[in-house]
Amino acid sequence: MKKGWIAALVLAAVLAAGPYAAGTTQAERQAPLAADDSYRLASGAVFYLRALGPDGTVAATGTGVLLSARGDAATAYHVVKGAAKLEAVLADGRAVSPVKVVRYDERTDVAVLELPAPKAGGGYPFVARRAEKLEHGDSVYAIGYPLKQTPIVTQGIVSSPDAVVSGRSRVLIDAAIASGMSGGPVLDEQGRLAGIISGSLRTMAGIHLAAGMSDLHALLPDGLRAGS
Fold first, then answer.
1. How far, in Å, are 5, 11, 12, 14, 121 from residue 1 at the CA level?
2. How many CB atoms lie within 10 A of CB 201?
3. 222 is known as an active-site residue
4. Does 109 participate in catalysis according to the annotation?
5. Among residues 33, 108, 96, 32, which one has the least CA distance to residue 64?
6. pLDDT at 167
7. Signal peptide position in this chain (predicted)?
8. Domains of the chain (ranges, CATH numbers)
């Protein structure tokens, strides 16, 4: 009889725990962050990106996000396609170059970059990366540089985590996206990188495209894929 009472009490405790029952990860137990907190957590790792032509003039601008302290980063491939030289302006105002494209996939619109090695004893600020797949209705925040010295943050939800667009999987979000934000991060409610801003859909007003984390991970070197 005593064992029966103990089992009943354990079952009641598990049911009362609801979403916090055994098996829930620590990240899932954390309270969601508001847009301002997510921005403060990640904005130092987001930078303005200039793509220069052979004559040194600006051919395109966009946004990038740092993935490691040593200078690994990511952006949208269409921002850097055909560039003769790339320059980054960091959140603290420092300009760094040259920025190298080390891997890319035009089909998924993702490029992995390498910034110059940081000074001895220093390192770049970088974002954590989300491991769990996004789901319909998840809250997300987008950060980017529509202007060189004007980073902005917008808020929305995941409209679809796995939409087939032009024959490839895309994440669809309804967070507002302005020109120049391409390549910037889509963050989840824990301030973790959950996607890379790619573009907009002409057929769906207010719905925008992002490359998912699986597309980014496919391009990362093994050491970075395992962690920063």
1. 6, 16, 17, 20, 64
2. 15
3. no
4. yes
5. 96
6. 84
7. 1-22
8. 44-125 (2.40.10.10)
List average pLDDT for each run of 10 residues in the chain, which is 228 residues long.
40 36 46 90 96 94 97 97 96 95 96 92 92 95 94 97 90 95 96 94 88 95 69
The active-site residue out of 43, 68, 72, 78 is 78
Contact 74, 64 (CB under 8 A): yes
Residues in the chain: 228
Q: Is 44 helix (H, G, I), strand (E, B) or coil?
A: helix
pLDDT at residue 21, rounded to an integer: 33
Global pTM? 0.83
Sign, Cα dihedral of 190, 194, 195, 201: negative
Tokens of 17: 């725990």
Q: Give the C-alpha separation, 96 to 164, whole Å.
A: 37
Choose the catalytic residue: 43, 182, 198, 215: 182
* pLDDT at 31 (0 to 100): 86
**In the annotation, is 78 catalytic?**
yes
Which of these is catalytic: 109, 138, 188, 215?
109
